[in-house]
Structures are given as C-alpha cells and as structure tokens.
Amino acid sequence: MIRYLLPLLFLLSATSNLQAGTLEQVKQRGMLHCGVNSNLPGFAEKNTGNAWTGFDVDMCRAVAAAVLEDASKIKYVPLTTSKRLSAVATGQVDMLARNTSWTLSRDLDKGVSFAGVNYYDGQGFMVKKKLGVRSALELNGAKVCVQQGTTSEMNLRDYFTLHRMECRALASKDSKAAVDAYEQGQCDVLTSDQAQLSALRSKMKNPEASKVLPEVISKEPLGPYVREGDDNWFNIVKWTLFVMINAEEMGITTVNVDHVKKTARDPHIRRLLGLEDGAGKGLGLDKDWSYRIIKLVGNYGESFERNLGIHSSLKIKRGLNAPWKD
C-alpha cells in the first residue's frame, strides 16, 4: 500500500497545470459517468433496492464526492471486458473503476492512463471438489474456462508452459458466460483473479461444491483508469484514492472525521482535511474536497471491509491490501 503521501499534497497547488477538460465537463453536466462491472459481487453490483454498491463503486462515489460535492451524482455504465478501455479512451465514461489490471501494453496502446492501485490481486484456479484436485500442478490436460481479452488468458498459457503441462482453454466473452460454462461441465477449471473467483463462487447455484486452489500464479495490480492526456483529471482520480489510503493510516473515519477536523493540530492531517492552503486549489477543487471523500464514502479500510472483508459476505482477508506497518 502507498503511505505518507500527504506531505506532498500542498505541492499540487504549485505544479498542477489546469486545463479545460474532464473536470469542467463533469461539473457542467452535474454527473460523473463511471464505467463499472455489470455484476461482480463485492466490486460492483445492484442491491435489492436497485442501488449500485461495491468496492469499485466506492471509487466512483469518492470522485463524485470530491468533484460534485455529492457521492450520489453518478451515472454507472456497465462495461464488458472488451469494451471497458475503449469506453474510457473515447470519452464514453469519465473514468473506469472495473477490476482492471495495470499492464505495459495498456499504458502504451489504449489511450488510457492508470491512476493508481486500489487492489492487489493474483490469478488462481477454481475446481469442483468432487475431482479431488489439491493443486494446480495436477491440472495437466484440463479444460479451463477463462474470460476473453483479459490478462488471465496470457497468465494461463504462461503457467502451463512453465510447468510443462497442457490445457485446453475455453474463452468466454464475460465472467457470467465463463461461470455458466464451468457450472454446465464444459470445462474442469475456472481461472480468474482470486477475489473475482470468490465473488463468482458466491453466486453459483452450489458454492460449496467448488474450491479455490492454493496457487497464485500472477500479481495483478487493479485500479481506476482515465483518458490519456488530461493530467488534471488524472491527478484528481489518483489523489482521491490516496486520500482514502492515507485517511485509514491516520485513523480518520466517516464517524470521527468531523471531530478530527475541529481539533487537528498535526499538519499532515490538517492538509488532508483542507485546513491548510494547498491541494484543492491546485486541482481546481474547493478546500473541502478531501474531507468530503472521507465523510461521504469513508477511508480505504472502511470501503474494503464493508464490500470485500469482514463485514461482507465474501470475507476476503486484507493480505497485500493491508496498511504498511512499522
């Protein structure tokens, strides 16, 4: 995780090059257009009240809170794997918060910029318990369901090549199609990022019939994307994430943020909460932009635990996503 970034916040007022772009468009529209997964438990899905919830949804809400002073002023745009990056590059959405890995090819070729890591994941394998498989090294000759157009396809090939095994990949257009194929017995194995496997397993007809194998075969830094070339908007989305991370490390939550704001003497906290001159002006935002992120959405840990962790149905452990410790 990234820590102790707030001493740098005041520098943005001097270094940002404000230009007409996404920020102005979002303000004029009065609505943030945010690309999300169509239905991935814990990350982005509609609840029983038809409201969008999830870890990635909170990223959208935090940006809306910072820019529009209201975390609800968002048009959520469900995007498929194949369309997610082009939707950002062409301006269909203002940002993407959709469990998407940061890769060199995406940095170079897609017309988008990666704004920071909000979740460290790794690819794994899910199998039906009845097969008696205990390790991915026992999967030689298996038929594997995988999502088309993802880093999972390449990682799958690399893993089996490295271990001198063979597999038959069945590529599906999206996660739902991959899960359907797996449940219907068209493949022996389902591969994806481990957090996604846990989320998909929770929606299966018989979740207890499957298990995730222990091997983690990749490192997947996931996070939001924005359109390339708008440096100020890139900074807004990036520092929105950093505010949530730093708020957790400083112990500032939705519950205590008002008290902390009234009593804070620590200059790092004062800068974080807009009590010192600095970042708001440099980003083209008001002085309370970062305070609103914490007040209306919460810090990083609050978002993680309610959507993915101990307060969610997924019960995913923090792992690499825990704060750094001295």
Describe the structure.
The chain is an alpha/beta fold and 326 residues long. The chain has helices spanning 12-15, 22-29, 55-68, 84-89, 104-109, 151-162, 175-183, 194-202, 231-249, 257-263, 267-272, 279-283, 289-296, 300-307, and strands at residues 32-36, 45-46, 52-53, 74-78, 95-96, 112-114, 119-121, 123-128, 142-147, 167-172, 189-193, 210-212, 220-222, 225-227. It contains 14 helices and 14 strands. A five-stranded mixed β-sheet has the order 10-9-11-8-12. A three-stranded parallel β-sheet has the order 4-1-5. Strands 2-3 form a two-stranded antiparallel sheet. Helix 3 packs across helix 9 (231-249).
How is this fold's topology laid out?
Layout: H1 12-15, H2 22-29, E1 32-36, E2 45-46, E3 52-53, H3 55-68, E4 74-78, H4 84-89, E5 95-96, H5 104-109, E6 112-114, E7 119-121, E8 123-128, E9 142-147, H6 151-162, E10 167-172, H7 175-183, E11 189-193, H8 194-202, E12 210-212, E13 220-222, E14 225-227, H9 231-249, H10 257-263, H11 267-272, H12 279-283, H13 289-296, H14 300-307
Parallel strand pairs: 1-4, 1-5, 9-10, 9-11
Antiparallel strand pairs: 2-3, 6-14, 7-13, 8-11, 8-12
Helix pairs in contact: 3-9, 3-13
